TrEMBL record:
SUPFAM superfamilies: NAD(P)-binding Rossmann-fold domains
Gene3D superfamilies reported in the protein's UniProt record: NAD(P)-binding Rossmann-like Domain (3.40.50.720)
Alphabetized GO MF terms: 3-oxoacyl-[acyl-carrier-protein] reductase (NADPH) activity
Pfam family, one: adh_short_C2
Highest taxon of source: Bacteria
Keywords, in A-Z order: Oxidoreductase
Family label: Belongs to the short-chain dehydrogenases/reductases (SDR) family.
Protein name as catalogued: 3-oxoacyl-[acyl-carrier protein] reductase
EC number: 1.1.1.100
Keyword set includes Membrane: no
Length: 246
């Protein structure tokens, strides 16, 4: 059963990792999918082909999430090209790491621009196209719940800000029948954070399940929130972290 048949989704940062898995899972559920990418057109094109192979329409949009105009334009292009917009998944993010004393102002500004401002701007643009039943889903982080390594203060701050954003938007958009939620992935096996990486054994030790997630496991929760079974969930931050925050 295609639970998202006739729906259109936009996944920011959808060319790889969790974003790509989300794009593909939503297509499997029947949605047409647009995705944004910053640099790697080839990777974005591969995801487009995978979506199209599932019989769905797909669109790749080059957009730097630090650019407000590009964020808004990506939302509007999705609605114009695919005919509507029902689901927004704010996945694009940067991952700064380093000692507090070494955090440069430019890095701080870009992190907040991509991880905090862009999701809010995308939501602002998206609700102009959404009707009742719309879904806005953010991809947060386990470090919003538990910071176990030094050097993550800026990243944790940016992801924790999304918790308040989601709660505020859920209150504001609830009367319009639009739900807003956040998914906190734990350590997930991606190019940027491979399960066989040098820190994997240590990271695994912080989870209750003792392993990294597969991107598809995060995407499954996003699909639930995007689908009809998630219609009464809003303002929630759901941890899919293998017990990292337990």
């Amino acid at each position: 059963m295609k639970r998202l048949e006739g729906h259109v989704a936009l996944v920011t940062g959808g060319s790889r990792g969790i974003g790509a898995a989300v794009a593909i899972r939503l297509a499997e559920e029947g949605a047409d999918v647009a995705l944004t990418y910053e640099r790697n057109a080839e990777r974005a094109g591969q995801v487009v082909k995978q979506v199209e192979a599932l019989g769905r329409r797909a669109l790749a949009i080059r957009a730097d999430s630090a650019d407000p105009a590009a964020v808004r334009a990506a939302v509007d292009e999705t609605a114009a090209t695919l005919g509507r917009l029902d689901i927004l998944v704010n996945n694009a993010a940067v991952f700064p790491m380093g000692p507090l004393e070494e955090l440069e102002l430019g890095l701080l500004d870009r992190t907040l621009a991509v991880n905090v401002r862009a999701p809010l701007l995308a939501a602002q643009a998206a609700v102009r196209h959404m009707t009742e039943g719309g879904r806005i889903i953010g991809i947060g982080s386990n470090v919003a719940e538990r910071v176990v390594f030094p050097g993550l203060a800026l990243y944790a701050a940016s992801k924790t800000a999304q918790v308040g954003m989601v709660k505020g938007l859920a209150r504001e958009l609830g009367p319009r029948g639009i739900t807003v939620n956040l998914v906190h992935p734990g350590p997930t096996d991606t190019d940027a954070n491979p399960a066989e990486g040098p820190f994997a054994e240590t990271v695994n030790g912080f989870t209750a399940l003792g392993r990294y997630a597969e991107p598809a496991e995060i995407a499954a929760t996003v699909a639930y929130l995007a689908g009809p079974d998630g219609r009464y969930v809003t303002g929630a931050a759901i941890s899919v972290d293998g017990g990292f925050a337990a």
